[in-house]
């Protein structure tokens, strides 16, 4: 089924909104200074199912939206873009094999923390060690999210249940 321009625009907008909303969901990991952000596995899953180009465009829209509302600052955007380029780039270059999906998020997080350490002039390990629980959560959550997005993409967003 060929998608129209309106369908593609709505799909892209929904992906951007999903990235933004899941960026707000932060789950504490039990270690001081660390948390799991649900947008990381969502980002990898979006790339795997909808493609790198749509993910990058949705990510730019999300970052612009968050920045314009004063929720994100330049450092947040820097971290997000490094993550997007590394995690999304790995999926785009290496494909959607399970191992690629499992490691794309954690490697994207490590790269983003490395660039942030250079920007802030702080030791890399002081930024990456607290992120390890979140990287594990990302690896665990990505495969179920990919399956969910594949189902949504396959059904075309059409409701398959009874309407009330």
- Straight-line N-to-C gap: 27 Å
Q: What proportion of the residues form beta strands (DSSP E)?
A: under 5%
Pick out the low-confidence regions: none
How are helices and strands ordered from N to C? HEEHHHHHH
Count of DSSP-assigned helices: 7
Work out the number of β strands: 2
What is the mean predicted local confidence, pLDDT? Answer: 91
CATH architecture: Orthogonal Bundle
As a whole number of angstroms, the C-alpha radius of gyration is 16 Å
Largest sheet report = 2 strands, antiparallel
What is CATH's topology name? Arp2/3 complex 21 kDa subunit ARPC3
Q: Describe the global form.
A: globular
Biggest sheet strand line-up:
1-2
CATH class: Mainly Alpha
* Tally of individual domains: 1
Q: What structural class do the secondary elements suggest?
A: mainly alpha
The amount of helix comes to over 70%
Q: Can you characterise this structure?
A:
This protein has 164 residues and is mostly helical. The protein has a single domain (5-154), classed as Arp2/3 complex 21 kDa subunit ARPC3 (Orthogonal Bundle). The protein has helices at 5-24, 39-50, 52-68, 74-94, 98-120, 124-128, 132-155; strands at residues 26-28, 35-37. Strand 1 and strand 2 (35-37) form a beta hairpin.
